[in-house]
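User: quick one, fold this
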Amino acid sequence: MQDSIITQNGDTTKLHIAKSSQAIDKKVDYQSKDSLVMEMKNKKITLYENAKVVYGDLTLTAGIIKIDFDKNLVYAYGILKDSIYSQRPNFVQGAQSFLADSLVYNINTEKGLVYNVQSKQGDGYLHGKYIKRENDSVILVKTGGFTTCELTNPHYIIRFDKAKVITDKEIITGPVWVEIENITVPIGLPMGFFPTQTKRKSGILIPTIGESANRGFFLENGGYYFGISDYVDLALRGDIYSRGSWALKAETNYKKRYKYEGNFQASFAHNEFGEKGFSNYEVYNDFFVRWTHKQDPKAHPTNRFNANVQLGSSNYNKFNPSSANDYLSNTFSSSISYSTLLLKTFNFSLNARHTQSNTTHRVDISLPDINLSSNTIYPLRPKKLTKPLKWYQNLNFRYQLQAKNNLSRPDSTFFENLSLNDFNMGIQHNLPISLNINLLKYLQWSNQFNTNWRWYFKTINKTWDPTDSTVVVDTLFKFRTPLDISYSTSLSTRLYGMYSFGKFPLRVIRHVITPSVSYTWRPDFSKDPWNYYDYYLYPNGEQWYSPFEGAIFGYPPRGKSSAISLMISNNLEAKVRQRTDTGEMLKKIVLIENLSISSSYNFAADSFQLSPIIISARTKLFKNFELRYALGLDPYYYNSAGKRIDEFQYNINKKLFNTQNQEWNFSGNFILKYPNVKKNQSQLSSSSTKKIYPNFNVTIGINLRHYSTYIPETNIDFTKSVVANGNVEFTPNWRVSFMTGYDFDLKDFTYTSINIHRDLHCWEIILNWIPTGFRKSYNFTIRIKSPMLQDVKLTKKTDWRDYY
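Assistant:
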């Protein structure tokens, strides 16, 4: 009688056997790629080749799986073939998963023994020669180790004899020691503790220990982390130095899905330099606050709230910068904004803004800054378009309102003796009315009448004090509403020219000329009926001024304008023949992206009626570089003192123009890729020859900028500088980035930094080097990449503050 059955199908099989008191109480699904053997008498099944068993939430795959239904045991093994052990057992149940050489598992008690296991625990990997599974949450390990390297033979591992693993919580071990590349390092601890939970957990932030030549021994970035919830956390850190310097830092992150996310940082630093009692002793107390808040676009269809705040003392980024950009920045600004749509027509925004300069040491705050604007309105258009529009139906207008209150004061005395006179506030109404018409298909005629109505709550009054020979300025709190109007019209078209070169490589040049002529009219607001200007008696006569000087939205200009302007823009493109693998094609090349010449003549002006001729050009070179040029040509004469005279240059020295200013700007980036030798390697038959050509690729990205300005016959200096920054990737694991420049006036290098990064799989090497300048320093670090063991590192550095 046959007591076993051999099946060679790969189908899933469900086995139903009469139950005993200890029988399996759930359905067992199993399958294999090659075959399975059923021993009906002994109630056993053996699966061969890519075997798989599913029992409840347990999934087991292996090369060979044996199931003993009588004893409720499952055995799993890999397959040894040609000295290669493959299809190792992979066990997954609930939150537990591991890869092993072999295992035995009791389905009823859920206990098991596993041999030579590798299991992922949190951000790390647990290795063990013998593992006993107590239940779905506790594992006992003998002769094992822990690492963040996912390789079967890891680059490093923290070894131990015994350990207890609580799934998704922690690993507790006895004495531990370190192995790097299978070599034992004389570093050990009496016990080990590895948190493995994926959720946030509060805990101590281990400080960095070191010594600074200027500030003494230190503990940096030590503190405590509060894992408050899945939506918010808090980290409190501090620095302390043996020579008196210290710092406190707080950072919190918050996020609510589909609603908002943000980050808040606040820090205070007390820096002491030099020796107490000596002239070089200096103390700086600085603070800085950063806050970023972003609303998710899905949170609300029309309402938006965003914030980007940077607020602090002027010396903070000098002595405590977190990046090169912080150190190089002379200004930092903040903005908090709320915007919404009102009545489906008006866009409303409420803003608070702040700007602080480290150069001028002034702080500017705008609070509030209110903007209200309507959509473009076409009053003559029907609600439903059933036929082509008439020319007059393009008439449109748009209302805009802006209200702002501004305060500008020195940062050191910002809140001292603050009064209403220090605030600069106002409201501005703007109503542009436009009409654009196409004439004869090829001419575009644009018209605009602009109304600008300002509301101010204070003005100034100027008088001459002959005693002190000074101008006395008094502030008058008086409500005034200056109104200014203007009208402009312009006519433009486009002209196309084509130049063909037959069969030459240069086939075609296309020249596009865009001429435009415009006229602008504006009344004289110093005369009736406006009278927005006043005067005081100066020893040399009347001195006119505007009572709205310094107002937040400006003031109506003095003098009538009746000016005609002319501009000619040019664009030059070419098509050249280019050979390809499949034949020939024409490639478009931009020769001159834009070349424009413009000037204007004011018929109403009593002097200097002709404005300077402005020439500007822009083009691209080699795809990634851009060249810009600007030149101002003034037809009027400048005397030896540099004063402009109302007399044409040609009438005095027969020269047409005086070069007012000239500017070149050259910028761009390029990428050089080392020729891919992979194709060549595939053609080499000798393996020894292949070793000569390493498989690497070099990518270089560089950004160059050259800037120069030349203004003759003035006190403005000639300036010239070159700035370069880029990245070099020798291989996927070697990266170098740099930033440098040269100032030809100072004859010295600008801020220079070199950063080198080497990826060592689970380790990394980082070198940050600033060779010259105020922040001269270096920082060399080799560390484990995983954040879980981020404090396992070796650091050698010098602090730039040691040279201060």
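User: anything notable?
Assistant: Residues 696 and 731 are 5 Å apart (CA to CA).
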